[in-house]
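Hi everyone, sorry if this is the wrong subforum. Our group has a chain we'd like a structural model of before ordering constructs, and none of us has done structure prediction before. Sequence below.
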Amino acid sequence: MITFTTPSWSALSYLQQSGEQMLQMMNCNTQTYMADSAQTIKKSTGIIPAEDVATAIALLQQRSRLADEVQQQQDDMQHELAELPAELQEEPLPSASTRAFPLLELLQAAHNAQEPVIWQHST
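Answer:
Right subforum, don't worry. Here is the predicted structure as tokens:
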């Protein structure tokens, strides 16, 4: 899980894959480093400084819309290729913009209060 916090909003948690996608969309550093020769550990905590929250909002909005467009094109192509009966079709996943919406609210609250946003990996 990845949890986002800011003093003026409730904590917001995402499953690992979705949280990492949100961080990547905002250009947050989640680089890995070598703990020893046998394992790699992801950076477990990060911060979006108050002065960078507006940029994070813009990036997340722009990139989630772009991800939605790409996903829609892929879905359309797949649908054309395989006309499956409704009972065999997979449930569509929530769009990137749908998943980003709660985080955008948290970021906006942080921006309005001029506060940083902290993210943390947890188990």
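For your construct planning: The beta strands are 2-6, 9-14, 32-36, 39-42, 45-48, 117-121. DSSP finds three helices and six strands in the chain.
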